[in-house]
Design brief:
Elements: H1 10-60, E1 68-76, E2 79-89, E3 95-103, E4 109-118
Antiparallel strand pairs: 1-2, 2-3, 3-4
Amino acid sequence: MTSHARGFTLVEVLVAVAIVAIALAAGSRAAGTLLDNSQRLSDVTLAQWCAENRLTGMKLAKQFPDVGTNSFECVELGQTYTVTLIVRPSFNPNFRMVDTNVQDSRGQPLTHLSVLMPRY
């Protein structure tokens, strides 16, 4: 009596392992990309808060900004950002155009916000 053992050949097993390895690598890369995008979104949100807080503070103080460039540091949730305010005159002398640029600690630009600031 002869029994024929049935099973997978070594080549079939290696092909299956290769397919699983490629799928896991692709999944790992996708997860890494999602994590990077999540961190970027967090940084941009915090940078937006820095810019908006500064502009809102100027409005609440009824401060009409002088024309020129001003830079300062902003700390939000332990992250330090560099905020640059560029104030330009507008066609109406009762308004100033304020451009706010925010960069992270590495100098990478995160957000840009422009507003028209009225004289109070």
